[in-house]
TrEMBL record:
This is Shikimate kinase. Catalyzes the specific phosphorylation of the 3-hydroxyl group of shikimic acid using ATP as a cosubstrate. Keywords: Amino-acid biosynthesis, Aromatic amino acid biosynthesis, ATP-binding, Cytoplasm, Kinase, Magnesium, Metal-binding, Nucleotide-binding, Transferase. It comes from Leucobacter triazinivorans. Its EC number is 2.7.1.71. Its main location: cytoplasm. The gene is aroK. Residues 1-67 are annotated as: Disordered. Binds 1 Mg(2+) ion per subunit. Pathway: Metabolic intermediate biosynthesis; chorismate biosynthesis; chorismate from D-erythrose 4-phosphate and phosphoenolpyruvate: step 5/7.
């Protein structure tokens, strides 16, 4: 079993194509908690304010974070955008949401779907993602939920640390703004069906999985940030 499969123990069957690159050491997934257990996530960790100066020192050292985009994937309304922003803040690095870039370039997504259809959306979405992933340097990049169905995008993700966020339909229907999501607004219950269609793709690209319905955003932001630092450490060890 590959390292990233071990990290995805609660996310379903093994990927057909193991993803190369770090992490190389096992990163256990705590069953049911959705947290990577490679570090002491949660208890005893510094407050964000206290942690800030230390993060800055680490960043100047230049070796504490992956030197490329850390990518968030997962089903609609799992928390990619909101958690991605928080993790970027926690790590002191930029955040990019590829849906927001799409909107700046092509207009509102619901309207784009209505006028041009999903296939054209996917083509342009993949262009946006390719352009964002090609930029060097540490960044968090949140994708739209359907981005992984495009093979070109999945191929690009092989070269990036990928965090999969998972949740449940019940949690999504409770919290999400469905009007902004063209695939859900007329049929919210489609969420579960769409997830099952895409699940193999999510599992193929993911290095680690977190459940966003079982912990607060604050807890998750710290845990994912910790995981990203561990990923970079292993990457550096491999390169030395
Ligand atoms: N633990 C959590 N992590 C992330 N988002 C959460 C969490 N709990 C509730 N939410 C809410 O779920 C919604 C997720 O929306 P969003 O971040 O846009 O998801 P996505 O980008 O995956 O579609 C937001 O309204 C967010 O406030
Ligand atoms: O899952 C999908 O097909 C989509 C998800 C959306 O992003 P979020 O996952 O951020 O809601 C957005 O890209 C578009 O509405 C299509
Ligand atoms: Mg989003």
């Amino acid at each position: 079993m590959s390292a990233h499969r071990r990290a995805n123990r609660d996310a379903g069957p093994p990927a057909q194509r193991p993803k190369p690159g770090p992490p190389t050491a096992p990163i256990r997934q705590v069953p049911g908690s959705g947290e990577a257990a490679s570090g002491a996530a949660g208890a005893g960790r510094p407050t964000p304010a206290a942690a800030k100066p230390r993060r800055r020192r680490r960043r100047r050292g230049g070796s504490r974070l992956p030197d490329r985009a850390i990518v968030f994937v997962g089903p609609m309304a799992a928390g990619k955008t909101s958690l991605g922003k928080r993790v970027a803040r926690e790590l002191g690095i930029p955040f990019v949401d590829t849906d927001a870039v799409f909107v700046r370039q092509h207009g509102v997504i619901t309207e784009f779907f209505a006028t041009h259809g999903e296939a054209e959306f996917r083509r342009l979405e993949a262009d946006v993602i390719e352009s964002e992933l090609s930029a060097p340097g540490s960044r968090i990049v949140a994708l739209g939920g359907g981005a992984v169905i495009t093979e070109r995008t999945r191929r690009l993700l092989q070269d990036h640390p990928v965090v999969l966020l998972m949740t449940t339909q019940e949690a999504v229907l409770r919290t999400a703004n469905l009007a902004r999501r063209p695939l859900l607004r007329d049929d919210p219950e489609a969420w579960g069906r769409i997830l099952e269609e895409r699940r193999p793709f999510y599992e193929e690209v993911a290095d680690v999985t977190y459940r966003t319905d079982r912990a607060t955003k604050e807890q998750l932001a710290r845990r994912v940030a910790q995981w990203a630092r561990g990923y970079a450490r292993k990457q550096n060890e491999r390169e030395q």
